[in-house]
Fold:
Amino acid sequence: MLKVVEYLNPSITEKSTFNLADESVSGQDMAKELAQELEEHYLPKAMETLRRLAPHKEILVDYCKFALQSTPPNYEYPIHLDGPGKVLSGVIYMAPRKSTGTFLHMNSKLSAFDEVTWEENRAFFFSRTPNDSWHSYKGDGKNIRWVLIFNLMTNQLNKHELLDLGYFRFQYRRIADRIGKLFGIKSRYA
Ligand SMILES: [Fe+2]
Structure:
């Protein structure tokens, strides 16, 4: 089952929220500078969150990744599991003031059993599992949905899968994936 950690109003200020959501703010330098500032301030908090959710995964973290992401009002991202590159998945709801959050599902087909509802500056973090951390998101049909993605990442994909699945299920999954590839079956991971 998906374990959820949520922070209400982390100390991302109104000002930085505005700047982040302003389409006129662009340029590599600005983005780099901002990413460095975010890393400095929030990496310790993300590591602390990971230690609470999945302490055995702390050894996997190789780097962190920030991305400001906007999706059109009618955009819909299907139900999926995050891939083994993500050790901790985080999303911070930026703008507008009201929108739709993240939907949690029991499997790839069932409709959502819960929603981490949208609130400006709310941060939602989880550590992916290979079988039951299904989620999706979509726009509210009215506004562009702005979020800040904040992930702790690993390059050690096999080690991550091995830790999640255990030796025998890991081997079984590898064989099943290879056979799946031969038949053109799409990966379950996004
Ligand atoms: Fe995801």
